[in-house]
Amino acid sequence: MTITITAFERSPDGGKGLARDTRVRWALEEVGQPYEVRLVSFAEMKAPDHLAIHPFGQIPTYEEGSLSLFETGSIVFHLAEQHAGLLPKDRDARARAITWMFAALNTVEPPILELTTAKIFEGDKPWSEERLPLVKDRVRARLDKLSAHLGVADWLDGAFSAGDLLMVSVLLRLRMSGILDEYQNLAAYVARGEARPAYLRAFAAQFAINAPTSS
Ligand SMILES: N[C@@H](CCC(=O)N[C@@H](CS)C(=O)NCC(=O)O)C(=O)O
Protein backbone atom coordinates (compact mmCIF):
# COMPACT_ATOMS: atom_id res chain seq x y z
CA MET A 1 0.00 0.00 0.00
CA THR A 2 1.37 3.42 -0.91
CA ILE A 3 2.49 5.57 1.98
CA THR A 4 2.19 9.33 1.49
CA ILE A 5 3.49 11.91 3.91
CA THR A 6 3.23 15.69 3.79
CA ALA A 7 6.09 18.15 4.08
CA PHE A 8 6.60 21.88 3.66
CA GLU A 9 6.66 23.05 0.07
CA ARG A 10 9.66 25.02 1.28
CA SER A 11 10.87 24.53 4.81
CA PRO A 12 11.66 27.70 6.78
CA ASP A 13 14.96 26.10 7.85
CA GLY A 14 16.23 26.02 4.26
CA GLY A 15 17.06 22.30 4.27
CA LYS A 16 18.66 21.83 7.70
CA GLY A 17 16.33 18.89 8.24
CA LEU A 18 14.67 20.36 11.33
CA ALA A 19 11.10 20.24 10.03
CA ARG A 20 9.39 17.20 11.46
CA ASP A 21 8.85 15.41 8.17
CA THR A 22 12.56 14.50 8.46
CA ARG A 23 11.74 12.41 11.56
CA VAL A 24 9.07 10.50 9.64
CA ARG A 25 11.30 10.11 6.58
CA TRP A 26 14.04 8.76 8.86
CA ALA A 27 11.68 6.22 10.45
CA LEU A 28 10.46 5.13 7.01
CA GLU A 29 14.05 4.70 5.86
CA GLU A 30 14.98 2.73 8.98
CA VAL A 31 12.16 0.25 8.36
CA GLY A 32 12.73 0.16 4.61
CA GLN A 33 9.33 1.45 3.50
CA PRO A 34 9.12 3.45 0.27
CA TYR A 35 7.00 6.58 0.48
CA GLU A 36 5.68 9.49 -1.50
CA VAL A 37 5.65 13.09 -0.39
CA ARG A 38 2.94 15.66 -0.96
CA LEU A 39 4.37 19.13 -0.56
CA VAL A 40 2.05 21.74 0.96
CA SER A 41 2.26 25.50 1.16
CA PHE A 42 1.38 27.36 4.38
CA ALA A 43 -1.97 28.33 2.82
CA GLU A 44 -2.71 24.72 1.86
CA MET A 45 -1.90 23.53 5.39
CA LYS A 46 -4.69 25.71 6.77
CA ALA A 47 -7.25 24.79 4.08
CA PRO A 48 -10.09 22.27 4.62
CA ASP A 49 -8.53 19.42 2.62
CA HIS A 50 -5.45 19.37 4.83
CA LEU A 51 -7.37 20.13 8.04
CA ALA A 52 -9.36 16.96 7.36
CA ILE A 53 -6.20 14.92 7.95
CA HIS A 54 -4.40 17.28 10.36
CA PRO A 55 -6.79 19.10 12.72
CA PHE A 56 -4.12 21.66 13.62
CA GLY A 57 -3.14 22.44 10.04
CA GLN A 58 0.48 21.32 10.28
CA ILE A 59 2.94 18.87 8.76
CA PRO A 60 3.78 16.02 8.79
CA THR A 61 0.83 13.76 8.06
CA TYR A 62 0.86 10.10 7.08
CA GLU A 63 -1.57 8.34 4.77
CA GLU A 64 -1.64 4.63 4.08
CA GLY A 65 -4.80 3.27 2.46
CA SER A 66 -7.75 4.25 4.63
CA LEU A 67 -5.51 5.30 7.54
CA SER A 68 -4.44 8.89 8.00
CA LEU A 69 -2.37 10.04 10.95
CA PHE A 70 -0.90 13.24 12.31
CA GLU A 71 1.57 13.84 15.19
CA THR A 72 5.11 12.78 14.44
CA GLY A 73 5.41 10.63 17.56
CA SER A 74 2.29 8.69 16.66
CA ILE A 75 3.44 8.21 13.06
CA VAL A 76 6.87 6.96 14.15
CA PHE A 77 5.22 4.66 16.70
CA HIS A 78 2.85 3.28 14.06
CA LEU A 79 5.79 2.50 11.77
CA ALA A 80 7.72 0.93 14.63
CA GLU A 81 4.75 -1.27 15.50
CA GLN A 82 4.19 -2.39 11.91
CA HIS A 83 7.78 -3.08 10.88
CA ALA A 84 10.91 -4.48 12.44
CA GLY A 85 13.85 -2.22 13.17
CA LEU A 86 12.66 0.50 15.53
CA LEU A 87 11.44 -1.30 18.65
CA PRO A 88 12.87 -4.35 20.42
CA LYS A 89 10.83 -7.56 20.52
CA ASP A 90 11.39 -8.15 24.23
CA ARG A 91 8.35 -6.77 26.10
CA ASP A 92 10.21 -4.81 28.75
CA ALA A 93 12.87 -3.43 26.40
CA ARG A 94 10.07 -2.37 24.04
CA ALA A 95 8.22 -0.55 26.82
CA ARG A 96 11.44 1.23 27.79
CA ALA A 97 12.12 2.28 24.18
CA ILE A 98 8.58 3.69 23.98
CA THR A 99 9.24 5.53 27.22
CA TRP A 100 12.22 7.22 25.55
CA MET A 101 9.99 8.27 22.65
CA PHE A 102 7.75 10.07 25.12
CA ALA A 103 10.72 11.46 27.03
CA ALA A 104 12.13 12.96 23.84
CA LEU A 105 8.86 14.66 22.90
CA ASN A 106 7.42 15.46 26.33
CA THR A 107 10.41 16.12 28.55
CA VAL A 108 13.38 17.14 26.41
CA GLU A 109 11.79 18.90 23.44
CA PRO A 110 9.60 21.47 25.30
CA PRO A 111 12.47 23.59 26.71
CA ILE A 112 14.26 23.32 23.34
CA LEU A 113 11.17 24.65 21.57
CA GLU A 114 10.95 27.40 24.17
CA LEU A 115 14.51 28.39 23.29
CA THR A 116 13.62 28.58 19.60
CA THR A 117 10.60 30.74 20.44
CA ALA A 118 12.67 32.99 22.68
CA LYS A 119 15.28 33.52 19.99
CA ILE A 120 13.26 33.67 16.80
CA PHE A 121 9.90 35.07 17.82
CA GLU A 122 10.75 37.07 20.93
CA GLY A 123 14.32 38.12 20.15
CA ASP A 124 13.27 41.72 19.50
CA LYS A 125 11.32 42.12 22.76
CA PRO A 126 12.84 44.40 25.41
CA TRP A 127 12.87 41.59 28.00
CA SER A 128 14.40 39.02 25.66
CA GLU A 129 18.02 39.48 26.77
CA GLU A 130 17.06 38.95 30.39
CA ARG A 131 14.91 35.88 29.66
CA LEU A 132 17.23 34.02 27.30
CA PRO A 133 19.73 32.81 29.96
CA LEU A 134 16.83 31.41 32.00
CA VAL A 135 15.49 29.48 29.03
CA LYS A 136 18.98 28.17 28.19
CA ASP A 137 19.39 26.96 31.75
CA ARG A 138 16.12 25.05 31.51
CA VAL A 139 17.52 23.28 28.44
CA ARG A 140 20.77 22.55 30.29
CA ALA A 141 18.84 21.12 33.24
CA ARG A 142 17.43 18.46 30.91
CA LEU A 143 20.69 17.85 29.07
CA ASP A 144 22.63 17.42 32.31
CA LYS A 145 20.38 14.52 33.25
CA LEU A 146 20.21 13.06 29.73
CA SER A 147 23.99 13.19 29.44
CA ALA A 148 24.38 11.46 32.82
CA HIS A 149 21.96 8.72 31.74
CA LEU A 150 23.66 8.14 28.39
CA GLY A 151 27.15 8.06 29.84
CA VAL A 152 29.44 6.20 27.44
CA ALA A 153 26.66 4.16 25.82
CA ASP A 154 25.93 4.43 22.12
CA TRP A 155 22.14 4.58 22.52
CA LEU A 156 19.69 5.30 25.31
CA ASP A 157 18.73 1.73 26.12
CA GLY A 158 20.63 -1.01 24.34
CA ALA A 159 20.14 -1.11 20.57
CA PHE A 160 19.11 1.91 18.48
CA SER A 161 15.34 2.43 18.72
CA ALA A 162 12.54 4.85 17.87
CA GLY A 163 13.39 6.49 21.21
CA ASP A 164 16.84 7.36 19.87
CA LEU A 165 15.41 8.46 16.53
CA LEU A 166 13.20 11.00 18.27
CA MET A 167 15.79 12.04 20.86
CA VAL A 168 18.47 12.68 18.24
CA SER A 169 15.93 14.60 16.14
CA VAL A 170 14.99 16.77 19.11
CA LEU A 171 18.63 17.45 20.05
CA LEU A 172 19.48 18.40 16.48
CA ARG A 173 17.37 21.51 17.03
CA LEU A 174 20.00 22.71 19.51
CA ARG A 175 22.95 22.59 17.19
CA MET A 176 22.84 26.27 16.20
CA SER A 177 22.73 27.36 19.85
CA GLY A 178 26.08 25.75 20.67
CA ILE A 179 24.58 24.20 23.83
CA LEU A 180 24.87 20.68 22.48
CA ASP A 181 28.65 21.05 22.25
CA GLU A 182 28.78 21.62 26.01
CA TYR A 183 27.98 17.89 26.31
CA GLN A 184 30.58 15.79 24.55
CA ASN A 185 28.68 12.52 24.85
CA LEU A 186 25.41 14.04 23.60
CA ALA A 187 27.15 15.69 20.65
CA ALA A 188 28.69 12.30 19.78
CA TYR A 189 25.27 10.63 20.23
CA VAL A 190 23.68 13.04 17.76
CA ALA A 191 26.55 12.55 15.31
CA ARG A 192 26.04 8.78 15.61
CA GLY A 193 22.38 9.21 14.70
CA GLU A 194 23.20 11.49 11.78
CA ALA A 195 25.71 8.96 10.45
CA ARG A 196 23.08 6.23 10.09
CA PRO A 197 22.45 5.47 6.41
CA ALA A 198 18.70 5.83 6.96
CA TYR A 199 19.15 9.32 8.41
CA LEU A 200 21.45 10.31 5.55
CA ARG A 201 18.83 9.25 3.00
CA ALA A 202 16.07 11.09 4.87
CA PHE A 203 18.19 14.22 5.16
CA ALA A 204 19.14 14.15 1.49
CA ALA A 205 15.51 13.75 0.42
CA GLN A 206 14.34 16.81 2.35
CA PHE A 207 17.46 18.77 1.35
CA ALA A 208 16.70 18.17 -2.33
CA ILE A 209 13.45 20.08 -1.81
CA ASN A 210 14.54 22.76 0.62
CA ALA A 211 18.13 23.63 -0.21
CA PRO A 212 18.55 27.33 -0.95
CA THR A 213 18.75 28.03 -4.65
CA SER A 214 21.01 30.70 -6.09
CA SER A 215 18.21 32.31 -8.11
N1 LIG B 1 3.29 18.04 17.66
C1 LIG B 1 3.33 18.09 16.23
C2 LIG B 1 3.95 19.42 15.82
C3 LIG B 1 3.86 19.63 14.33
C4 LIG B 1 4.52 20.94 13.93
O1 LIG B 1 4.79 21.83 14.76
N2 LIG B 1 4.78 21.05 12.62
C5 LIG B 1 5.40 22.24 12.10
C6 LIG B 1 6.52 21.86 11.16
S1 LIG B 1 7.83 21.02 12.02
C7 LIG B 1 4.38 23.02 11.29
O2 LIG B 1 3.60 22.46 10.57
N3 LIG B 1 4.44 24.35 11.40
C8 LIG B 1 3.60 25.24 10.65
C9 LIG B 1 2.41 25.67 11.43
O3 LIG B 1 2.22 25.28 12.60
O4 LIG B 1 1.66 26.48 10.87
C10 LIG B 1 4.12 16.89 15.66
O5 LIG B 1 4.97 16.39 16.39
O6 LIG B 1 3.87 16.45 14.54
Automatic annotation (TrEMBL):
CDD domains (alphabetical): GST_C_8, GST_N_GTT1_like
Ranges that cross the membrane: none
Ranges for domain GST N-terminal: 8-87
Keyword terms, alphabetized: Transferase
Key word Transferase present: yes
UniProt domain GST C-terminal: residue ranges: 90-213
EC annotation from Swiss-Prot or TrEMBL: 2.5.1.18
Molecular function via GO: glutathione transferase activity
Database matches in InterPro entries: Glutathione-S-Trfase_C-like, Glutathione-S-Trfase_C_sf, Glutathione_S-Trfase, Glutathione_S-Trfase_N, Thioredoxin-like_sf
Pfam families: GST_N
Record-given protein name: Glutathione S-transferase
